Amino acid sequence: MSTSNLAEEHVKPAVRWGIGHALPRTVLRLAARRGDLQGRITVEASTGADLTGLFDEIRARGPLALTKVGHTTARHAVVKEVLTNDALVTTRPRYGAGILGKLAAWSATEVMHPVQPPSLLVTEPPAHTRYRKLVTRVFTARAVEQLRTRTQAIADELLDGLDPANPVDLIETYCGLLPVTVISEILGVPPQERATVLALGAAAAPSLDLGLSWRVFRTVETTLNSFDAWLTRHLDALRANPGDNLLSRLITAREDGVGLTERELKATAGLVLAAGFETTVNLLGNGIALLTGNPAQLETLRRQPELWNNAVDEVLRFDPPVLLTGRMCVDDTTIAGVPVRRGRLVTTVLAAANRDPSVFDNPLAFDVTRPNARDHVSFGAGRHYCLGAQLARMEGEIGLRTIFDRFPDLQLLSGARRRPTRILRGFERLPARLS
Fold it and tell me: What CDD domains does this protein's entry cite (predicted)?
């Protein structure tokens, strides 16, 4: 093996992991040991612990708490202010012109990644404006609603395949399969290739998290390479034979005669796969756990099924799929009266803002009748507001309503386990008895 091949296959990936995951994880762990709020929330999140007390601590430190890492907030109004401020941008950590910066530049990969440019998650105006406008023209509320009938059929088919007499892991048999099958519809995946996309979706989803282990990181990178190669062939096939799916429409979408580049198309498809899979899996799993744990709320939904949409928003408020999101300050600014200097990281704890008592009455109660449940910030705010919000709500409503209609006596069994992730919040295993 040549020196250049050795670097590409072994050394560069190790450097990418070290800078992008091992180093931030080590810094945050050290900060947590010293009692730093930013360090504590990321470390304690990975244990699956109840973070309610920590949310209160952050909120008590003022509108924008200063930490060793940057600033953090648990207040609803401040989260929205941060996410809509043009001086703060979405980015992974920056390492400047020093040795870390040079190593990061040397080890960078050209393979599509959901949290690397040109992904909508980390693209900023003016490129973001053009890019999102084109994507939004395809991912409309009407387009999502057209998927409703098919989503219902997928949910029914999945539940038809379960044996009520035997315990099942709902994450494996239902919560994971429903969203990734819907994603296959969106991407126009032929039936014979859907097993491939199912495997790719499950393996690529952790790409959205921080502090991955070396094993998971390598699995993610290998999967993204495979998805990139598969997508090249798939886009060529759709150009030759467009179908009635959103990716085919996105290929032909134009604004002033200009469409998305090949790399932008791939980035969008990758984001749909990774974000659309992981966050909806978490929404469904968290919702099932909340409703089985609150039988009076489930009974309310049986008496008033028109509340299912609101129940989905209450699940998103009470136990959101994404714990927090960060922004990097690129120009000196002021947030909630607090000066924030260029180069500082600002972390918005979405799950804490969703329990802000100044916005939500009795915020620690799970209440499917809550009149302002939809005021949660689980989809973010501003220019990076989640593009798939309507799709997630629709899948959540159908997925949760259908399983409880089909199996009204569903009970969770011992052995449920939270994912050991820092940003994403959901279940890794959810054993249940259906009947």
Answer: CYP164-like (cd20625)
The domains located in the chain, with CATH, are 126-319+388-435 (1.10.630.10)
Stated as kind and residue range, the H or E segment containing 227 is helix 214-240
Reading across the β-sheet that carries 431-433, which strands appear in turn?
168-169, 431-433, 411-412
For 164-169, which contacts have Cβ atoms below 8 Å and span 24 or more sequence positions? 164/407, 164/434, 164/435, 165/435, 167/413, 167/431, 167/432, 167/433, 168/431, 168/432, 168/434, 169/429, 169/430, 169/431, 169/432
CA distance readout (Å), 309 to 170, 306, 364 = 21, 7, 20
In sequence order, the β-bridge partners of residue 431 are 169
pTM of the model: 0.93
Residue 322 is given by DSSP the state B
Rounded distance between C-alpha atoms, residue 72 and residue 91, angstroms: 16
State the 10-residue block means of pLDDT for the chain, 435 residues long.
59 88 89 91 89 95 92 97 94 65 74 80 87 86 88 96 94 94 90 84 83 91 89 92 91 86 89 86 97 97 98 98 94 95 94 98 98 98 92 97 97 94 93 95
Nearest to 285 by CA among 171, 419, 434, 162: 171
139: closest CA among 253, 239, 236? Answer: 253
Smallest CA-to-CA distance from 421 within 271, 179, 213 is with: 213
